């Protein structure tokens, strides 16, 4: 049973033809990356799957009412502390404060946020902000995490670290994740399956299984890594984009 | 030296005020200005001390009217701002009337309110509320407008309902604006109460001022003006302090 599936989605904004024909699905426990050039409508696609945007043709099915959503820039609420931000989904579910704190505190160390509960977002680093935003998504306890260019705004070193960290965490916890990226490396590090989109108006150029053992994924110059990267690149370029 | 003064800007402010008072004293002594034209600071202080008990009673009345009026104007101002922000229809319908209401001179509105609601304190409270709600509304509307639509989307994706959006996104986004408006209102509210008392009534600094004027006791008038200034300043500081407490996430420089 798929957690999220879309078939033959199409979307226009006035004269702008964004999505032409996009189908995809995410099964339980699966990490799927949507890879495509900048501006190809990846964010629009996610927003449609999240129910934040309408579509003109096709269909969307989703099992989850709530989605653990990590938007591109994280969007932590500036008036809430780190703790206040990460426990927000629990507050929205009406959980009492003590229970919210307990659940959030349990996960803070694993997300490298211990000791920063009372800091405001502007007081912590960009990498910590994204980890906090991810923890917020995780605490939404949805069956699927939806991540929009999760580490796109970070410097290279921090980005690599967080990619490796998330890849390891996702496998250990068997999370289902749907993420979008324009970064080939990110797709190879994180995804078990990559859906390659063309430039706007987007169609699916193809799908690639990325069968690299998790221990080797962080070796960005290893032979299997580069081979997977080349296959994705070939798909991207082969699409006449 | 200059560094330590700049580190505490209120020292500069105090120095400025002291300088102005000194200049005032010098001018009134050197040019022998009659006290009914311009009482010197010393004469003003003497009037303040001599009339202290009476002034205290009038001040209590004025302060109560000002604070109550401000307290009424706060929910009124924010409520109107929410109505204006809720839809384009309400904004189009109400905003021009509100702006026009502020174009009517207070000196023309206040007597009307006294005719309708009598000479007692409730009429003064209404006058204060009329003066104070507008800056709160205008700034709160700005504040609600500054709310980030992406925060709204994020909350919706996490399952937020409409009232959750208000609580977690709109209200906090508007708080700095609301307090900017409240600070302006806090400086207006004493003025509103005094104008109301000036036009009619039996208690309050405005009443005291009209009586002082009629008997050419300019020194008493100045004493009352001094109290009005101090009262306004105190209310501003209190409002500012509450605002700081409620918006701890805002980064502030060390300016007072």
Could you characterize the architecture of this molecule?
The complex is a heterodimer of chains A (241) and B (256). Chain A is 35% helix and 25% strand. Chain A is α/β, with parallel strands linked by helices and 241 residues long. Chain A has a 9-stranded mixed beta sheet with strand order 4-1-2-9-8-3-7-6-5, sandwiched between helices. Chain A has 8 helices and 9 strands. In chain A, helix 7 crosses helix 8. Chain B is mainly α. Helices cover 83% and strands 0% of the residues of chain B. Chain B has 11 helices and no strands. Chain B is globular. Chain B starts with a helix and ends in a 10-residue tail after the last helix. The mean pLDDT of chain B is 90. At the A-B interface, helix 3 of A face helix 8 and helix 9 of B.
Short note summarizing the structure:
Chain A has helices at residues 42-49, 82-86, 88-92, 97-107, 126-139, 156-173, 184-190, 223-238; strands at 2-13, 16-27, 31-35, 57-62, 68-70, 145-148, 177-181, 193-197, 202-209. Chain A is built from 8 helices and 9 strands. Chain A is α/β, with parallel strands linked by helices and 241 residues long.
Ends of chain A: how far apart?
33 Å
Counting helices, strands and paired strands, the structural category of chain B is: mainly alpha
Straight-line distance between termini of chain B: 19 Å
Approximately how much beta-strand content do the residues of chain A carry?
Answer: 15-25%
Going by CATH, the architecture of the largest domain in chain B would be Orthogonal Bundle
Low-confidence stretches of chain B: none
CATH homolog superfamily of the largest domain in chain B: MetI-like
Question: Major sheet of chain A: size, sense and barrel closure?
Answer: 9 strands, mixed
**Largest interface, chains and sizes:** A-B, 26 and 21 residues
Average pLDDT reading of chain A = 88
Helix count, DSSP H or I runs of 4 or more residues of chain B: 11
| Helix count, DSSP H or I runs of 4 or more residues of chain A | 8
Give the total of beta strands of chain A: 9
């Amino acid at each position: 049973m798929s957690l999220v599936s879309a078939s033959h989605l199409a979307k226009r904004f006035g004269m702008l033809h964004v999505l032409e024909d996009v189908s995809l699905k995410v099964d339980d426990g699966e990490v799927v990356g949507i890879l495509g050039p900048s501006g190809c409508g990846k964010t629009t696609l996610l927003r449609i799957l999240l129910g934040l945007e309408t579509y003109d043709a096709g269909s969307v099915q989703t099992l989850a009412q709530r989605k653990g959503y990590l938007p591109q820039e994280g969007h932590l609420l500036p008036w809430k502390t780190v703790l206040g931000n990460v426990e927000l989904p629990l507050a929205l579910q009406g959980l009492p404060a003590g229970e919210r704190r307990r659940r959030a505190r349990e996960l803070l160390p694993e997300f490298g946020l211990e000791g920063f509960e009372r800091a405001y977002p502007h007081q912590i680093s960009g990498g910590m902000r994204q980890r906090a935003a991810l923890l917020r998504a995780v605490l939404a306890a949805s069956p699927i995490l939806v991540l929009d260019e999760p580490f796109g705004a970070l410097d290279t070193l921090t980005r690599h670290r967080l990619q490796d960290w998330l890849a390891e965490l996702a496998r250990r916890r068997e999370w289902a994740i749907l993420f979008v990226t324009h970064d080939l490396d990110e797709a190879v590090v994180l995804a078990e399956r990559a859906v390659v989109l063309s430039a706007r108006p987007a169609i699916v150029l193809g799908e690639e299984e990325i069968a690299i053992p998790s221990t080797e994924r962080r070796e960005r110059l290893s032979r299997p890594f580069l081979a997977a990267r080349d296959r994705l690149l070939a798909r991207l370029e082969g699409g006449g984009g | 030296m200059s560094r330590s003064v700049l580190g505490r800007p209120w020292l500069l402010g105090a120095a400025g005020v002291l300088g102005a008072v000194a200049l005032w004293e010098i001018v009134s002594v050197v040019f022998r200005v009659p006290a009914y034209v311009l009482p010197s600071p010393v004469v003003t202080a003497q009037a303040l001390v001599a009339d202290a008990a009476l002034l205290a009673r009038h001040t209590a009345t004025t302060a109560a009217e000002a604070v109550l009026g401000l307290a009424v104007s706060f929910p009124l101002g924010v409520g109107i701002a929410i109505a204006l922000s809720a839809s384009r229809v309400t904004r189009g319908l109400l905003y021009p009337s509100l702006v026009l209401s502020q174009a009517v001179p207070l000196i023309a509105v206040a007597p009307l309110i006294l005719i309708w609601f009598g000479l007692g304190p409730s009429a003064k409270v209404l006058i204060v509320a009329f003066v104070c709600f507008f800056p709160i509304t205008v700034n709160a509307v700005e504040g609600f407008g500054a709310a980030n639509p992406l925060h709204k989307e994020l909350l919706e994706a996490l399952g937020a309902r409409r009232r959750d959006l208000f609580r977690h996104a709109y209200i906090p986004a508007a708080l700095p604006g609301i307090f900017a408006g409240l600070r302006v209102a806090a400086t207006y509210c004493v003025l509103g109460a005094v104008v109301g008392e000036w036009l009619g009534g039996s208690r309050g600094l405005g009443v005291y001022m009209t009586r002082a004027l009629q008997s050419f006791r300019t020194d008493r008038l100045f004493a009352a003006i001094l109290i009005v200034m101090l009262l306004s300043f105190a209310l501003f500081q209190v409002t500012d302090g509450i605002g700081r407490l409620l918006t701890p996430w805002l980064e502030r420089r060390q300016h007072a």
